[in-house]
Amino acid sequence: MLIVGLGNPGSAYVSTRHNIGFMVIDELCRRHSVQNISKSSFEGELFKMGSHFLLKPTTYMNLSGRSILAVKNFYKIDEVIVIHDDLDLPFGALRFKNGGGHGGHNGLKSADAAIGADYTRVRMGIGKPEHKSQVADYVLHPFSAGEQEQLPQWIGRAADAVEMLFTQQCSDVAAKYSQKSL
């Protein structure tokens, strides 16, 4: 299984809303004994965790699919989970689904174009700005101080859910871990 956390590389983006997927991958790496098996051809940071792979694409969000496809093809992986921020859900929401549309998310658009849309999504709600014109600025800014206090609990819950996806169906994980907000 390939677990992908979407985000943008570089220190300027570390704590931004768009990088919540990277944060969950970091938590999984912290919890487990992982081996860094990154190669330049993967265009991402790749970790092996038992029989699973954890990926943080370094292509920037809009080109994430290139990295996902490279790893998927190299290791002949069929099952992919993508963890991503979701503007259509309130802050702290956690949802799960198999397949679906990209909802305007550039990382998902790239993944869909590269590997098709038939993968499991871990949707992490980040809320949305007042005006649509503020979206790019909103997702590329850090969480508020109040939100940052709640991040460890939320990221931990998402990591727990991903671990359950190793052995359980998406519907079972959704029944246990879905939440409307924090």
TrEMBL record:
Record field: catalytic activity: an N-acyl-L-alpha-aminoacyl-tRNA + H2O = an N-acyl-L-amino acid + a tRNA + H(+)
Binding site for tRNA: 13, 60, 62, 106
EC number: 3.1.1.29
Gene3D superfamilies from the UniProt entry: Peptidyl-tRNA hydrolase
Keyword field: Cytoplasm, Hydrolase, RNA-binding, tRNA-binding
The organism's place on the tree of life at top rank: Bacteria
Chief location bin: cytoplasm
Catalytic center residues: 18
Feature type site, description Discriminates between blocked and unblocked aminoacyl-tRNA: 8
Subcellular localization, as worded in the UniProt entry: Cytoplasm
Span of the signal peptide: none
UniProt cross-references to InterPro entries, sorted A to Z: Pept_tRNA_hydro (IPR001328), Pept_tRNA_hydro_CS (IPR018171), Pept_tRNA_hydro_sf (IPR036416)
GO biological process, one term: protein quality control for misfolded or incompletely synthesized proteins
One MF annotation (Gene Ontology) recorded for this entry: tRNA binding
Gene Ontology, cellular component aspect: cytoplasm
Enzyme class: hydrolase
UniProt keyword annotation of DNA-binding present: no
Site location (Stabilizes the basic form of H active site to accept a proton): 85
Protein family per UniProt: Belongs to the PTH family.
Role this protein plays: Hydrolyzes ribosome-free peptidyl-tRNAs (with 1 or more amino acids incorporated), which drop off the ribosome during protein synthesis, or as a result of ribosome stalling. Catalyzes the release of premature peptidyl moieties from peptidyl-tRNA molecules trapped in stalled 50S ribosomal subunits, and thus maintains levels of free tRNAs and 50S ribosomes.
Subunit structure: Monomer.
Name this polypeptide is given: Peptidyl-tRNA hydrolase
Naturally occurring in which organism (per UniProt): Sulfuricurvum kujiense (strain ATCC BAA-921 / DSM 16994 / JCM 11577 / YK-1)
Gene: pth
